[in-house]
Amino acid sequence: xxxxxxxxxxxxxxxxxxxxxxxxxxxxxxxxxxxxxxxxxxxxxxxxxxxxxxxxxxxxxxxxxxxxxxxxxxxxxxxxxxxxxxxxxxxxxxxxxxxxxxxxxxxxxxxxxxxxxxxxxxxxxxxxxxxxxxxxxxxxxxxxxxxxxxxxxxxxxxxxxxxxxxxxxxxxxxxxxxxxxxxxxxxxxxxxxxxxxxxxxxxxxxxxxxxxxxxxxxxxxxxxxxxxxxxxxxxxxxxxxxxxxxxxxxxxxxxxxxxxxxxxxxxxxxxxxxxxxxxxxxxxxxxxxxxxxxxxxxxxxxxxxxxxxxxxxxxxxxxxxxxxxxxxxxxxxxxxxxxxxxxxxxxxxxxx
Length: 352
What we know:
Layout: E1 5-10, H1 16-24, E2 29-35, H2 39-49, E3 53-55, H3 58-62, E4 67-70, H4 74-86, E5 90-93, H5 101-113, E6 119-121, H6 129-140, E7 146-156, H7 159-164, H8 179-194, E8 197-205, E9 218-225, E10 230-236, E11 238-251, E12 254-259, E13 262-268, H9 271-282, H10 301-315, H11 323-342, E14 346-347
Parallel strand pairs: 1-2, 1-4, 2-3, 4-5, 5-6, 7-10
Antiparallel strand pairs: 7-11, 8-9, 8-14, 9-10, 11-12, 12-13
Helix pairs in contact: 1-10, 4-5, 6-8, 8-11
């Protein structure tokens, strides 16, 4: 696609500025529409970023732009995305793709019927240098036989956070709580690094948010990876720790643990390998001048992902994070919820 690219932002809440700034940093790209059910939110973003058009109806945007970012509540992602694909509009959809399995099916049925538009999904941590390097180490076999791998997401989400947006922590609008919102970023990163999850068995509970949210504030799961390794998923939004994601991989020849994307453990039986890995992670360090000014815990990946999406639209190629690949982490989360209800292992059939 040659020439100028026009974009619309559907949903003008807290994540919208990361998308707007990402698009506006790319030559030849203009954000021309801001859309939100609360028109004042759209007008505020439009005034802040010089966006020409404002509306409450996303359908008005679809006929007037080349692509959209879907930044609304999880429960509305499926309908907006399906309508956009039918209209021939390229879509970058925020996590999580959908709030329910039915919504997920709606999106992919639309994409199967209308495959021309690019359909990408936001998992910005796949663009983090440390996450990519950890995947390289797995792919090259540096760990030997991988024995276990896991992720932990410990964070704090207050009563005020949930009451500020009524969709949060609900089954129909958000699809859950800590698993599908905060933890899903690192569930995706773990699954991507490891080459996919084969099955999960898990459970969840609500320990400190009773009367505030319907869904879980704490969850754990066992994991079988496609490579044969076993693992764990642990998540809570009731911690006194504001934000602490951890990914750890342990193999027969070595182990690495990342916390906040930085290595807290690098242990290999071969000291030359250990030194190389330490140097590799040191090279991943990002200068503070390019870190996100929106939310520190978003990381640096949104701008890189949006640039990749724009390039995919311009050259009509697959984006680095296809919606098809992003579906895997969503189905892992749905699998944990299903396992809680059935008390059985749940197979994950999609590919990462």
